[in-house]
């Protein structure tokens, strides 16, 4: 498959680097201000000619650009799948939403790592898919390398009653360290920032927004997947989520929980009717008590009981593996 990658952050660069290992070819790459588009795209009967992945990554690292073309040129390139890996934005979910709909209007597929369009404008996306010969996939928007969305789809959303889990590595690292070392939130946050686990502004992670967006996406998958007519589905956005973060979790609460064989984790839960994210007490040695930056997704099913999938929920190569897995499903 020929890929156009929009977004040259950690995930976009990793997709560019790893695409060849998955037998895909990158024919265009764009960041916010520049692009590089291959001279030839290797149509049927011709030799495939894509961009040089090493050159793209090196140019981004050394000069802060991916090429000398305009980003619009990448959107107009001759590709099979658009990979949308720009930063998540809320509300109108732009520019990611427009990137995806542009691909669909050209009857191309789109694979998203950007949570915004799927969490904030899912109904609009499904409508655009209905008018296109293209399809969308978005495994990478929930739990990085963890195959949460595809597992729900394989089981069939109508047979899944709830999906819950630990879906943010930064918040989980902080809570794990607080419990293990008896430290308070501010101390561990500073440590996480020094280690690069937390951003300088950690609000998106510690206030529960990131986990909530992932749960909103799962709720949309459950809601739309359980009905024959999309008009009968309930569409979720971030506004529909009940969200509490971890800023106000005191170290004393973790110490008291430990005395009772429990600990605290930021747990998100999605059904076809509700989305909730909040710190919750869980058994200290239980399935949901993953440590460090690990994530876990727990799927409650009607006939197969409870399924647990854990792994790395973030990171460039990890998330790129989910993107490229989705590309493979579109072949």
Helix/strand order, N-terminal first:
EHEEHHEHEHHEHEHHHHEHEEEEH
Count of helical regions: 13
Rg over C-alpha atoms, rounded to the nearest angstrom: 20 Å
Structural class: alpha/beta
Low-confidence stretches: 41-48
Instruction: Report strand %.
Output: 15-25%
Tell the overall outline: globular
Per DSSP E runs of 2 or more residues, the count of β-strands stands at 12
User: In which range does the helix fraction lie?
Assistant: 25-40%
Verbal overview:
- There is one protein chain.
- With 331 residues, the protein is an alpha/beta fold.
- The protein has helices spanning 10-18, 53-63, 71-75, 96-105, 115-120, 122-130, 148-155, 169-181, 185-195, 203-206, 209-225, 251-259, 316-329, and strands at residues 2-6, 25-30, 35-37, 81-84, 109-112, 136-137, 160-166, 242-243, 262-270, 275-283, 294-301, 306-312.
- It has a six-stranded mixed β-sheet with strand order 3-2-1-4-5-6, sandwiched between helices.
- Helix 7 (148-155) packs parallel to helix 11.
- The protein is globular.
Keywords for this structure?
single chain; 331 residues; alpha/beta; 6-stranded mixed β-sheet; 12 strands
Compact description:
The relative contact order is 0.15. The strands form 2 sheets. This protein has a 6-stranded mixed β-sheet, with helices on both faces. A 6-stranded mixed β-sheet has the order 8-10-9-7-11-12.
Structural topology:
Layout: E1 2-6, H1 10-18, E2 25-30, E3 35-37, H2 53-63, H3 71-75, E4 81-84, H4 96-105, E5 109-112, H5 115-120, H6 122-130, E6 136-137, H7 148-155, E7 160-166, H8 169-181, H9 185-195, H10 203-206, H11 209-225, E8 242-243, H12 251-259, E9 262-270, E10 275-283, E11 294-301, E12 306-312, H13 316-329
Parallel strand pairs: 1-2, 1-4, 4-5, 5-6, 8-10
Antiparallel strand pairs: 2-3, 7-9, 7-11, 9-10, 11-12
Helix pairs in contact: 1-13, 7-11, 8-9
């Amino acid at each position: 498959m020929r890929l156009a990658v929009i977004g040259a952050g950690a995930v976009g660069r990793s997709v560019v680097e790893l695409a060849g290992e998955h037998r895909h070819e990158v024919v265009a790459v764009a960041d916010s201000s520049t692009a590089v588009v291959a001279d030839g795209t290797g149509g049927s009967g011709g030799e495939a000619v894509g961009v040089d992945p090493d050159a793209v990554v090196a140019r981004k690292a050394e000069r802060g650009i991916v090429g000398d073309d305009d980003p619009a040129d990448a959107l107009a390139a001759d590709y099979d799948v658009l990979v949308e890996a720009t930063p998540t934005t809320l509300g109108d979910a732009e520019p990611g939403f427009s990137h995806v709909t542009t691909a669909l209007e050209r009857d191309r597929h789109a694979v998203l790592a950007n949570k915004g369009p799927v969490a904030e404008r899912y109904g609009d996306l499904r409508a655009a898919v209905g008018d296109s010969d293209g399809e969308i996939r978005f495994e990478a928007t929930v739990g990085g390398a963890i195959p949460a969305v595809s597992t729900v789809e394989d089981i069939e959303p109508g047979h899944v009653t709830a999906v819950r889990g630990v879906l943010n590595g930064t918040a989980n690292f902080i809570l794990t360290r607080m419990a293990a070392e008896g430290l308070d939130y501010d101390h561990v946050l500073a440590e996480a920032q020094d280690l690069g686990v937390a951003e300088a502004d950690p609000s998106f992670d510690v206030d529960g927004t990131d986990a909530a967006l992932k749960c909103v996406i799962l709720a949309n998958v459950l809601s739309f997947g359980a009905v024959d007519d999309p008009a009968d589905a309930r569409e979720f956005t971030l506004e529909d989520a009940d969200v509490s973060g971890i800023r106000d979790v005191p170290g004393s609460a973790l110490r008291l929980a430990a005395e009772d064989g429990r600990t605290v984790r930021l747990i998100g839960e999605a059904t076809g009717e509700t989305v909730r994210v909040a710190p919750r007490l869980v058994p200290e040695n239980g399935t949901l008590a993953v440590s460090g930056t690990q994530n876990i997704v727990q799927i409650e099913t009607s006939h197969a009981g409870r399924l647990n999938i854990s792994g790395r929920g973030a990171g460039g190569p990890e998330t790129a593996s989910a993107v490229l897995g989705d590309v493979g499903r579109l072949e």
